[in-house]
């Protein structure tokens, strides 16, 4: 997702672009399907040799609950503020690579299916949200199985 620097006029430039995860090299990341789309809305301002970008990225994050391992799929929004320095004569700004970096650093690796998730029994592995445990392992709902 390259932006021509000269297209950023004195009033700024707003882009609203949909890009596939694979187009910005998010192919092997577990938190997103490489065929899914990300919506990138960015307001860009040029100040001297810098481009200041306020960006909102909307995508469907895929994860597993940290307690019960249930598969999660949720729409997620990330707001980013990125400064790009460029040399005079540079023609293009690679917004996609920086969005990728920020997503990799900012996506939370742990998530819960719900706040009161009871998790898995540490003794027999049963999902305590869906069925009672009959083993002798001590557990208190959501206590022994905390993140």
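^ structure tokens above, recovered residues below v
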């Amino acid at each position: 997702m390259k932006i021509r620097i000269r297209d950023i006029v004195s009033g700024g430039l707003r882009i609203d672009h949909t890009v596939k995860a694979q187009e910005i090299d998010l192919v092997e990341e577990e938190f997103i399907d490489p065929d899914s789309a990300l919506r990138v809305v960015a307001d860009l301002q040029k100040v001297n040799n810098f481009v200041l970008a306020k960006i909102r990225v909307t995508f469907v994050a895929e994860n597993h609950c940290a307690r019960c391992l249930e598969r999660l799929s949720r729409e997620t929004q990330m707001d980013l503020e990125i400064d790009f320095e460029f040399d005079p004569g540079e023609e293009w700004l690679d917004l996609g690579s920086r969005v990728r970096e920020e997503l990799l650093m900012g996506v939370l690796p742990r998530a819960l299916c719900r706040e009161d998730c009871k998790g898995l029994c540490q003794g027999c592995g049963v999902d305590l949200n869906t069925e009672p445990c009959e083993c002798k392992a001590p557990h208190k709902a959501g206590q022994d199985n905390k993140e």
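The helical segments are 95-106.
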